[in-house]
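Hi C.,

You asked whether I'd gotten around to modeling the 298-residue construct. I have! Everything is below, sequence then structure, no commentary in between.
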Amino acid sequence: MDDYSSSKFTELANHIWSVADLLRGDYKQSDYGKVILPFTVLRRLECVLAPTREKVVETYERYKDKGIDVDRFLRRASEHSFYNTSAYTLKAIANDPSQAAKHLLAYVGAFSPNAREVFEKYEFPRHIQRLDSANEVIAEAIRVAAAALNPTDRTLLSLRSRRAAILILGGDFRRALPEFDALAETYARIDGPTSDDALLCLRQAAHCRAQLGETTAALRQFRQVLTHVRARSGDASPTALELRRDIGFLLLAESKTTEAAQVLKDLHEDLCLVSGPDRPEAQEVARVLRLLNVFTDA
């Protein structure tokens, strides 16, 4: 797997972890990893298997009723030591929100035993059901609260934020996006556009747009957040560095290589100053810059 692909996986992991703050109350902090890490692993495995996915499904359909052990045929078809026999993808699952939990359980269950064992150790199937249940519970709580509370009531806004975060963890970016957009507007109106809650929701909306392929709009929102973060805490704060990285990789996704290279080169210099060149964040950006032929070890 090339360095750019690895950076995209890191981007996904960072984004999923950024949702954790919105899940307070539904999960203990010590349990965040039980939900977040399996989603990250699932997406990575899906990307690794993508080139041979159709071949594996065809092989499985051909041999499943032959009364033989098909494992070796499926490993050969996948070109890896693991495989998945389902035709599902996370994107397809997200496009049918009402059946997301059911389809996600089927998807995880279709992995080869060695890969499925990873998810079982995290009790991932149980957490899928819990997230599905939590989403329904929170949705009902929002409906009740909305009837009794002012639309800008803090309790209601907190419930909406948690539900949107759960939608993201379930891969339902399309439904989470309008909710984060609306929350960002509401927090900006009542607390100001530079408030922590307004910027957090705006950033989550940008992440949703990036996952949905709306890269131009996502870039605009990331830059909007970065402008406020820079004004408040400078260009080298942890949040600013993360946003600059998001922007650089999105520019690459839009094939704006020259602009991306400049953003990432400046970012790499600041990462080296702040935490040193040997830190994983700096090394990751350095690898991408080498691929773009704008960085050397000299």
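If it helps when you're writing up: Residues 234 and 240 are 7 Å apart (CA to CA).

Thanks,
B.
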